[in-house]
Amino acid sequence: MSVRNLSINYTQTSGTHMPGFDPQAGILGQDWNLMAPGTAFIFGSQDDIRHQAAREGWLVQYEDIDGNIVPLNIPYNQNRSRNLTARSQVEPFRDLRIEVTAQRSHSRTQSEYFTSVDGQYESFNPMETGNFSISFFALGTTFESIDDRTYESENFENLKDYRYDIAMRLANRNPNWDGEVNDTTGFPTGYGPTSQDVLIPAFIAAYSGRDPSSSTLDPFLRFPMPNWRLTYDGLSRLPAFQRLFQSFTIGHGYQSSFTIGSFSRTPGIVNKTATKPQKVRPQETSFLNSKLDRYPSASSSTR
User: Fold this and answer.
1) Contact (CB, 8 A) for 292 and 270
2) The Cα angle at residue 227 between residues 264 and 83, in degrees rounded to 5
3) What whole-number distance in Å separates Cα of residue 117 and Cα of residue 239?
4) Are 37 and 58 in contact (CB under 8 A)?
5) Mapped to the 3 state alphabet, what secondary structure does 118-177 carry?
6) Higher local confidence (pLDDT), 241 or 164
7) Residue 283 pLDDT > 50, yes or no?
8) Which residue has the higher pLDDT, 144 or 298?
9) For residue range 25-64, what is the model confidence (pLDDT) as tens digits?
10) Which end of the chain is more exposed for a tag (fewer CB within 10 A), N or C?
11) pTM, 2 dp
């Protein structure tokens, strides 16, 4: 058995777009007279320099005909993407090659309007968007049999059944949950059967074949699972196959991924002084998780 090659690539890309930046870029992109946007920034630092820019007067302020400051209508953006790919080719014996791959990618963009109001710079309408994808192992649940009479899917039925277990786990770990249960659904208040916090972990547990009492509650899975491609062309060496075929290759492959096509959240409702997860008011039908930035919104698509 021999390992033909092995490669692991990890890339992280970050960027900042700050509208209204007035200093003129010189060598290396810096205004050396004003030292703007800063030596650390031009060498790759992504620290938030908005407030420094406001203090130093680096931001343009537009006035209308009456001399009033007009707020900038272009959002300040910070984006970050992380991509991990791993690939290896193994040859257990002659003519049999196995290629194993794994991947994980996660990108997010934070945007908000940073503008002057009565001489003071403030932030408005924060929004965070992004997407996520990871190689996923679901072979154990892929070849399920569908009931010819009811056309029911066992995996889908498991997903529905697992929702209650997931909801109870989420509720029990939330110190603000008071033990209240919704009379209509039977689910703990704040974690209903259609809650995204419940549905996505239930989906992962059902289609990965895991126990809902111990499966992950985090939709952003940490460890990519292997996909593979197997090829064998040793039969081409046999005289019978040589007479009939120029080449004869047997192939088998498995590829699966878990993808969140898009997610979004509005982080501005989080009380930064709070130390515990908070209950959303006034409806109080769901909880605001302290790790809300790790969850997709209801507009997410998962496959």
Assistant:
1) yes
2) 40
3) 84
4) yes
5) CCEEEEEEEEEEEEEEEECCCHHHHCCCCCCCCCCCHHHHHHHHHHHHHHHHHHHCCCCC
6) 164
7) no
8) 144
9) 888 888 888 888 888 888 888 888 888 888 888 888 776 6
10) N
11) 0.77
Closest CA relative to residue 134, chosen from 211, 229, 208, 231: 208
Q: Which pLDDT value is given to residue 265?
A: 81
Q: Cα–Cα distance between 204 and 212 in angstroms, integer?
A: 9
Q: How far apart are CA 136 and CA 105, in angstroms?
A: 12
Number of H helices, E strands in the chain: 6, 11
Cβ-count burial of 86 within 10 angstroms (0-12 exposed, 13-18 middle, 19+ buried)?
A: middle
Q: Which residues contact 47 (CB under 8 A, 6 or more apart)?
A: 40, 41
CA 159 to CA 167: how far, in whole Å?
12
In DSSP terms, 101 is beta-bridged to 87, 227
Beta strands in 189-249 (DSSP E): 227-232
pLDDT of residue 277: 42
Is residue 145 packed enough to be buried (19+ CB in 10 Å), middle (13-18) or exposed (0-12)?
exposed
| Spatial separation of the C-alpha atoms in residues 177 and 170, rounded to whole Å | 9
Query: Quick one: average pLDDT of 215-223?
Result: 92
Percent of the chain with pLDDT over 70: 84
Q: 200 falls in which pLDDT band (50, 70, 90)?
A: very high
Query: String of b and e for 13-35 (b: at least 16 CB within 10 Å)?
Result: eeebebebbebeeeeeebbeeee
Taking all residues of the chain, what is their mean pLDDT, rounded to a whole number?
Answer: 83
